[in-house]
Every structure is written in C-alpha cells, then in structure tokens.
Amino acid sequence: DCYIDICSPDVLSLFTDNFDYQHLRRHFVKGLLVDDIMGYKIYTHEIHSSYAARIDNFRSYDAVSKDIIQRWTYPMVPDVLSFGNCHEMKLHRQGIYKASDVTLSHSAQIGANSVIGNATSIGEQCKILNSVIGEGCSIGKNVLIHGSYIWDNVIIEDGCKVSNSLVCDDVHLRAGAIVEPGCILSFKIKVGKNVVVPAYSKVSLLDKPSNEDSDEELEYADTNSGVTDSAPFSSTRGNADHPTIVSEDDELGASEVFFYS
Fold it and tell me: Which InterPro entries would you find in this protein's record (predicted)?
C-alpha cells in the first residue's frame, strides 16, 4: 500500500458527518467497509509496470534509495535527475555514481551501488561500500563507510567507521570515531575523538519526545525496526548550534545532547 488515495467529493461530507474520524485507514476506511446501509465502495488498483512507494520510516527510506540506485525507478535515477543541474552525475560500472567535481584518492575504493556527491573529497585508503555520500563532504584517510547515508557538508576525520547508519548535514566525526549499525546522527552533531556511538542510537539537538504515541505512530509501529534504550551522552557545546559528544580525553560540560531511541 503506497498510501495514494483518490477520493470523490462525497468524502468531505462523510468526514463532516463523522467528525470523530482521526485516521484515514483505521477509522474512515473501516467505517465504510462495515456500513451496509449506504453501500459505499472502495476500489484498489494494482501497479504492475510502474513504481510507487511510500517512505514513512528509515527502513523504507533505505529500501527506496536502493531501488533508485539500482535503477528500478528509471527514469527517476541519479544520472537522469542531475540533468539541468550544474553538478552532473555520471554512472560508472557496478552502479557507481560520481559527480563531476569529486576529489578521489588513487588508493580509495568505491564499492558497487554507491553515490558520491559534488565537491566531496575522499582520502587515502578509504572504503565506501554500498553507501551514499552527499555534496561538500570531507572524508579523511583510512575511513570505512558501509551501507550508510552521509548527507551534505559532513566532515569525517581519519580512521572513522560508519556502518548502516544515517548521518545528517553538517555532522563532524573526529578521528577514530565509530558509528555502529542502526544509528541516526541529526544535524550539526559533533562526535569526539575515538568515541563509539552504540548501535541503534539516535543523537539529536531536539528535546527528547514525549512517550505519548500519535495515531499515526501506532498505525505504523509494526513497520519500525526495534531499537534499544541508551543513556544520554554528556557533551560540551562550543556554541548553541554545534553540540559535541565528547571522548574521555575531552572536558565534560553541563549541557547534554539528547540521545534516545
């Protein structure tokens, strides 16, 4: 179910009459199906030759991204979508996409099904495997990135390892940092030298969300991957926009970056 609904004008009046409807699938559709008096009908259309998908969690984000890279969504693929953009993306062998202005060390290895964005530099002895690297990123020496999504303007220093994780814009990983599988590092996070971010961690500048689940969260709870709770990192802030997850050698401060799952 890609959650594309084409409704008749009668739907608006039905929502007016049944103002307690809070969720389209759980309340509205169920209400129509059990109503034998009005005789309303719902039709479905199966797509056989086209592609449609709904991204509502990180698992579906990963699945659809892989479909795009592997060209199941043609013509919605990186090298075609880049047309008209000053930063042209070219397709190479083994499903490797590289922008025109990428600085790549001769000893670096780019594995199959990977994307490297414009103005990104990759240092010596790096391995980029099955991953997407955004624009303006700086990746140092001996870095291993596997099955991950690195967004724009990310700095990854020497000896870091990132596995099956998502790293948002303007994140800074200092030398030797390790991001274990299933992690999400939100915007402008800084990870200290040799710090290990435990598996399935979420690090963000935002306040920790309440425990109350919305109807939509409950609706798709079964599609979310399992995560484990972890204690928050202690951190220091050079300024309000750049929190730091500190290593043992760094000075601890009173502020915290919320670290939750």
Answer: eIF2B_epsilon, LbH_EIF2B3/5, Trimer_LpxA-like_sf
Give residue 232's pLDDT.
Answer: 35
Locate all alpha helices (DSSP H) within 18-165, ordered by sequence: 30-33, 58-69, 78-81
Domains and CATH numbers, the chain: 1-46 (no CATH), 58-260 (2.160.10)
Residue stretches of the chain with pLDDT short of 50: 215-241, 248-261
Instruction: State the Cα–Cα distance between residues 101 and 104, nearest whole angstrom.
Output: 10
Per-residue pLDDT tens digits for 220-247? 444 443 333 343 333 333 344 455 555 5
- Please report which helix (H) or strand (E) contains residue 5, including its range: none
Q: Which long-range contacts (CB under 8 A, 24 or more apart) does 213-219 make?
A: 215/22, 215/23, 215/26, 216/23, 219/23, 219/25, 219/26
pTM to 2 decimal places? 0.73
User: Which amino acid is residue 210, in one-letter code?
Assistant: S
Nearest CA among 158, 195, 159 for reference residue 180: 195
Residue 258 pLDDT: 46
The neighbouring-strand residues paired with 30 are: none
- Residue 149 CA to residue 99 CA, distance in Å, equals 16
184 SS3 class: strand
> Using an 8 Å Cβ cutoff, are 143 and 160 in contact?
yes
